[in-house]
Amino acid sequence: MVNQDHSEGESRRRILQTLGAGAVASVAGCSGDGTTSESPATSEEPSGASPGDASNGEWPDLSGTSVHVVIDGTAQPVRDFWNRVIGEFKKATNADTRLEFVGKDQGGVQRVIQLLQAGDPPELFAMNQIDALGFIQEDALAPLTGVIEDKIEPRVGQISQNARVEMNGDLWLAPMFFALAGWYWRGDLAAEVGMDERPEWTWETTVEYAKKVGELDGSAGTYVPAGPGRHSVNHFLAWLKTNEGSLTDMNSDRVIVNFDEGTNRTRMVETLEQLRDLHAHSPVASDSNYGTVAHAIENETAASNWFQGYRPKMYAIQNERSFAADVHCAQMPKKRTQMSDGNIDGLGTFRGSNVDAARTLIDFTLQEKYLLDLYKVNPVHDAPPYPKIRDGEQYQAFLEGLPSEYTKNDTIAYQEEILQNFTPTGFGGDQVNPYMATVTGSSAIPNLIRRVLVEDENPDNIIDKHAKELQSTLDDAQGR
Amino acid sequence: MSNEVMRNDTRRRSSKQAVFEALSGKWVLAVLTIVPALLLFAFVNIVPIFWAITGSFYEISAYSPEWTFTGVQHYADVLANPELWASLSRSVVFASGAVTLQLVLGIGIAMLINRPFKGATFIRAIVLLPYLTPTAIVSFIALWMANSQFGIINQILAQMGLIETYIPWFASLDFAMIAVILTSAWKWTIFVTIMVLARLQSIPDGLYEAAEVAGATKYQLFRDVTLPNIKGVIFIVVLLRGLWMFNKFDIIYVLTQGGPRSITETAPIYAYEVAFVETQLGKSAAISTLLFVMLVTVAVIYFKTLEPEQEVRVE
Predict the structure, then answer these.
(1) Does residue B99 fall inside a structural domain?
(2) Predicted complex ipTM
(3) Helix B227-246 and helix B82-114: axis angle, to 10°?
(4) Does any CB of chain B come closer than 8 Å to the CB of residue A193?
(5) Cross-chain Cβ contact A228/B259 below 8 Å
């Protein structure tokens, strides 16, 4: 167990340790993506309501307290948001803040790993539940139960049940927004091929739509990602969940791969076959990534696809596509169950950092005014996990004020219907997989998908090999 | 000038002289010029290397700062794992392919732009661009150009009638490694060009004139005059580029993440996967250390057998 208190005494080793933590990468020639940057967090003057200050006692005086914040993301609106929040926190508490932006995807986790190894964990890191589970498993995160239940919830309302990252009786992540897996399609093309503009989506109707629309001139009927990377696994999981399938189980304390046996094997094969049937009406997409999936409808590569978030419609609107209003959103097409997948993004803090200061910062950040600002950065896409805010006057007025192409039906589909059946990736039933980051990061599932979709192999013949591959990676991660 | 002023002036000069002489002492000069650089080098290079070597003997979870001593267990595990050997063989393929291509193209370009022609300065500046551009940006441009939907490379090849369907260059089992090698050549060929060009420009014209008078053909001029003069540079370039390419991580990771089906998963990518997917920093450190030892061994053998230092002359 790492000491929970902030220890000044550790600083003597930190420079050397920080250097050392980069050694694995440097000896191997790995130098990261080089996108780390720091912000003084003071460039933006507070706007809107007064944040309060230490002198009036609204927030504690943290003079002389160092608060290190790591944010994954390079988009300017995200940076502007965090510059403002941390700038105002600094003014309100006199804390010595250090805001660090790192490259997107796994850049943030890698930076935090470096800091953990240096014995200098950050006070605040914005992460999703998959990453949080890994940190919880290794006893690296500090619980937030007190601050969430005693401070945040009384102010902004109770957190949605499916946004509670709860393990061992504690809450570990202060949620900021959902990124939900949804199904997107062009309604105008559905009508053109004689289907309902908003069909009842099942596995069968997705193939029917893709086939019929694909026969029109223009876009392919659908876009099925077959490239390497986490997007491929998340895409697959979204389909697998609607088939009541899973990749892993817990056996005592060990995470074991379960898709090579019994019912799960059948579900796995069915899901792969469904994707193969869909892929017949898709570009090969073996070089897919999150970007190609998010833009596939907007740039007319394809007429339908999955995405984790609302970007397919958002990009069509932002890029002023003539069909933007006809891009619709629904729950993932149903096979056995109406289950949806996705992530909950939130704030966490680490044992060994200044946990009290971190809790104050989390409390400060999760004020309604900041959350409302955050939800404006990616309209609809970042769905509020706080029903009181989501149903509140201000947020509803914001939704009403969006361009008409956003359409109320699609917003409701994304923020209400999908949410009703939502379980975050890594959580399922009573079981939590603390090694979900290893599952999504391993090449085993993308390789299996590629072999079925691109190389046309029979899934039943190759499942065992990739189950073993994933189990081996999981065992290494579990130190077995 | 009064005597007092002259005395002060003499005192000042003599104290200056004393400082100068003190600073000019062999050891003082060595300490002042070398030690700061050495300290900096040790700080940013040696310390991390020793950290990695030490860490390779411990079980280190990426998420926890606690280390548990395991001795040589990681080395035994890693050496017994066929994935290491597969990734090493891919590293060899990538490094040898990339270095060969960079060498051939680099020498060719250097010889082309060595000749005087109108706009030579401009062209020399232009060819530097990929080398000056960050690797990640070059990689993303390459990904965009080779995109299987809209990539300009596919469009051109299709218009020329060379392909019927667009090829996902970085996601094809047949082309991914070649595409990565070509992209690396695009980025780093100019390094070879710069080194070779500098050497070419120092070859006395008289050598070529004498050979031409003796009736040498263009090929003979290259073989008997140019090549012997640039041989030393080539030895150094092959060593440097070989080591750098063998260790190359960024360009491959951005382009393919080691895919498709691991065919571009070189040893550094494998070490990265072990560190950040399996979250086993100690094991990853063992892989990195093995790579380090292998490269040092290769460099020593290279110097011992080929003696490139004998080929490098200072004119």
Answers:
(1) yes
(2) 0.81
(3) 150
(4) no
(5) yes
Which chain A residues are within 8 Å of B260, Cβ to Cβ?
A: 227-228, 286, 450
Token pair for B105: 């193209």
In a shared domain, residues A25 and A173: yes
Chain A residue numbers touching B277 (CB-CB < 8 A): 437-438, 441-442, 473, 477
DSSP A158: P
Domain count, chain A: 2
Phi/psi of residue A368, nearest 5 degrees: -55, -40
Whole-angstrom distance, CA of residue A126 vs CA of residue A69: 8
A144 in contact with B at a CB cutoff of 8 Å?
no
Residue-range definition of the domain harbouring residue B38: 3-55
Interface probe for A, chosen from B58, B255, B276 (most Cβ of A below 10 Å), is B276
Residue A78 shares a structural domain with residue A141 = yes
Q: Write out residues 93-132 of B within 8 Å (CB-CB) of A.
A: none
Same domain, A223 and A314: yes
Quick one: A204 and A349 in the same domain?
Answer: no
Residues A143 and A44 reside in one and the same domain: yes
Nearest CA among A186, A146, A181 for reference residue A162:
A181
Joined tokens for residue A103: 């490259």
pLDDT by position in tens, chain A (length 480): 333 333 333 443 444 444 444 444 344 334 333 344 555 444 333 343 344 445 556 899 999 999 999 998 778 999 999 999 999 999 999 999 999 999 766 788 999 999 999 899 999 999 999 999 999 988 999 999 889 999 999 999 999 988 999 888 899 999 999 999 999 999 999 999 999 999 999 999 999 999 999 999 888 999 999 999 899 999 999 999 999 999 999 888 899 999 999 999 999 999 999 999 999 999 999 999 999 999 999 999 999 999 999 999 999 999 999 999 999 999 999 999 888 889 999 999 999 999 999 999 999 999 999 999 999 999 999 999 999 999 999 999 999 999 999 999 999 999 999 988 898 998 875 678 889 999 999 999 999 999 999 999 999 999 999 999 999 999 999 887
CATH code of the domain in which B279 resides = 1.10.3720.10
Chain A contact for B278 (CB, 8 A cutoff): yes
Residue A413 forms part of a structural domain: no
